Amino acid sequence: MFDTLEHFYFPRANARGSAVRLQESWQTILERRAYPAPVQKLLGEMTAAAAMFASSITFPGSVLLQIMGDGPVRLAMVEVKPDLGLRAVARLREDVPVPEGAGMRELVNAAGGGRCAITLVQPDPARRAESYQGIVDIASTSSVAEALAAYMTHSEQIETRLWLSADATAASGLMLQKVADEGGRGEAPDYDPEDWNRVQKLAETVTADELLRLEPRELLRRLFWQENPSLAKPRSPRFECGCSRDRVGGMIRALGEKQALELLAEKGSIDVTCEFCGKTYSFDSIDVQALFEERAAKATGSIN
C-alpha cells in the first residue's frame, strides 16, 4: 500500500489538475475509529479534496477543512500540512443513528444548520489570528465535491471541477482547474479555448470504482491518453499527527492549576487521548506539579 498525488497540466486547455489516491494513510485513519460506511465516505472525500487543495497552493501553513454538522456527524475535520502530512477525524452524535446510504446532506445538514470552512492556518502561533478562512455553502449542494467546486469557482474565482470517492479501502479524487489567463498565455499559438471543455468531458467519464482502484498515473493515462498532459514529479501524502506531550501539557496548563488538581484528586492522573492517532498521554501528580512550577518560573523570569 502506498499513497500518491499527481499534478498535471494541459497547455492547450490552459488547465491544471491533480489526482490523488490515499490508501496507507487512509487505513491508518480508519484504524483509530470504526466509522459507519456513509461517514467513511464523507470523511474520505474530504481528506482527498483537502490533500489536492493543499498541494495546489503555495502557503507555509496547514490547510484545515471542517464541517460542523447538525445531523449524525457533529464534526468532520481534515488537516493537511505543506509537506502533505495529513490527519482526519469525525465526531458523531451518540444518540443520532447514521442512516444507511446517507449522503452529505443527511449526515451534516439535516436541519439546515451545517457549516463548512476552509482555513489556511498561519504556522506562527503569534500570527494565528491572521489565518484566512473561507466559508463553503453546503445548504444548496448535495456532495463534498459539488460544495467545494462551487466554493472555488464562485468565491476564489478559480473555475474548478472535482470528482471524489472513498470507501473502507481508499480515498481518492480528481481535480481540474482553469488557469487564469495571465502573461499572454491565451495568445500562445497552440492555445485552444475548446480544450477546457474537452478535458472536462473526458474527466466526467471517470467512475467511482476507477478513482478507488487505479493509481493516479494510470487513471490519467486512461482518461486523457489523447491529450498528453504534462506531468510533474509525483508526491507522497502520508498520515502525520501533530500531537505531542508538550502540546498536551499546554492544554493542562490552560485548564488552570485549581481545575487540574481537582481532576487529579478525582481520577489519580490526567489522561488525554489524541483523537487523530489514538496515543494517550498520562500526567500524574508529579507531572502536573512540574507543569505549573515551570509556568511560574517562566512568568518570574519574564518579570525580571
Care to give the gist of this entry?
It comes from Mesosutterella porci. It holds the Pfam family HSP33. This protein is of the alpha+beta class.
Task: Describe the overall structure.
Keywords: Chaperone, Cytoplasm, Disulfide bond, Redox-active center, Zinc. InterPro entries: Heat_shock_Hsp33, Heat_shock_Hsp33_C, Heat_shock_Hsp33_N, Hsp33_helix_hairpin_bin_dom_sf. This is Hsp33 family molecular chaperone HslO. It holds the Pfam family HSP33. The longest helix has 19 residues, at 37-55. The protein has helices at residues 24-32, 37-55, 104-108, 144-154, 194-203, 208-213, 216-224, 245-255, 257-267, 285-303; strands spanning 4-10, 15-22, 62-68, 73-80, 85-92, 115-121, 132-136, 160-166, 171-178, 230-231, 238-239, 270-273, 280-283. The chain folds into two domains: 4-239, 3-Layer(bab) Sandwich (Hsp33 domain); 245-303, CBS domain Like (Alpha-Beta Complex), CATH 3.90.1280. Helix 8 (245-255) crosses helix 9 (257-267) and helix 8 crosses helix 10 (285-303). The strands form three sheets. The chain has a six-stranded mixed beta sheet, with helices on one face. The chain is of the alpha+beta class. A hairpin with a 6-residue loop joins strand 12 (270-273) and strand 13 (280-283).
